[in-house]
Amino acid sequence: MQLHFIAIGGAIMHQLAIALHNKGFQITGSDDEITDPAKTNLAAAGLLPAAFGWFPERIHEQLDAVILGMHAKENNPELIRARELGLKVYSFPEYMYEVSRDKKRVVIAGSHGKTTTTSMIMHVLRDQKMDFDFLVGAKVEGFDYSVKISDAPVIILEGDEYPASVIEKRPKIHFYHPHISVLTGIAWDHVNVFPTYEFYKEQFAIYLNQMQEGAVLIYNAEDKEVVGLTEKMPRHIRDIPYITPSYRVQDNAVVLPTSEGKVQLQIFGAHNLQNMEAARKVCNMLDISDDAFYKSIASFTGAARRLEKLHERQHFIAYRDFAHAPSKLKATLQAARDRYPDHKLVACFELHTYSSLNAAFLSEYAHTMDLADNAAVFFSAHALALKGLPPLDAGEVQQYFENQQLAIFQDKAMLEQWIKAQIADPDMPVCLLLMSSGTFDGMSLQF
Asked: Is it true that domain 308-435 has CATH number 3.40.50.300?
């Protein structure tokens, strides 16, 4: 099988390319820019293009298919050539379905918690010695890759609602056709693609309506939007609700009372306990008992950048989190407040996504930072320019958050100085949260 990847340097694209290379496929690829970790990973696999750019001559009739990444534009020279030759062009979710047609497909969908829930399931299945394939949007401890394609009978897919490619505008989740799915919650996101909340919600309704006869939906019964969708769901789908389990925080650790006895977890936060319940229900459907699940989940430490501990010393602990949507900010702050009730909570959030930098969406962030003792929001002119958005006024940003104590920064050096001032007292216990889908413009995260 010969495949060519247009925009091979994408976070998932390069992982899929490596997975298929490991399976024995002949893989080539192009991109106009490839940065780490993709660059290092592709080089190690022998798949890094010799030169960056687009080369129509790499597209030839001997190719079985072309896989198109989201980074590629519709006027891409290689895409144009592929269409001229009549080659089959797949987006990566379309191709993921092609290589998993004969597998039991488990899809984790929803506006939040997808990566963590997927990672939990992967952790438990690996610990229980089950053979499975996967696609996940972050580095998971114990796994060398974020995509695996083999002859395993089951595949676990993190299901993104973002469009599949420049020529296939439907959400990625519409292509997976799961046998088992989780719906974690619905909260408006991706305003550049879904300009209204109703349009955004409709994508999940379409997803549910497309699920096949006998499919199972494991849904968050504490999310009113999800519950509203399930009430209108086709009756050929079996639905299984889940809620946040009872737990308590003891000596800065989460303890879960279960039918199998008390279980001490390494994760924390009500939202993560909720994700864990979804993962447990999925694992039950894959013939893993509660006893086996709890034994395995006790060693789960989390996915990369999902309440990931950066460093810890006496009276100080710092986490970074991928939180960028309003619901995610609230959940992350609440998790830190619950686990560290006696610590000063210092929270920094970077406006980095198209939605968060868009004035039309910013009002959704009202009061999301209120749980912090000291809070700051950072955004850069560079990020705004990259997304083609107009400048933001710091005063207006503060008004959108409806928090008069909120510090606003556009210079990373000033933000760094502010953080150091907040954590300067060596006798004051402090929990620092750094929340962003970006890098705070390259700011050092060592404090």
From this structure: no
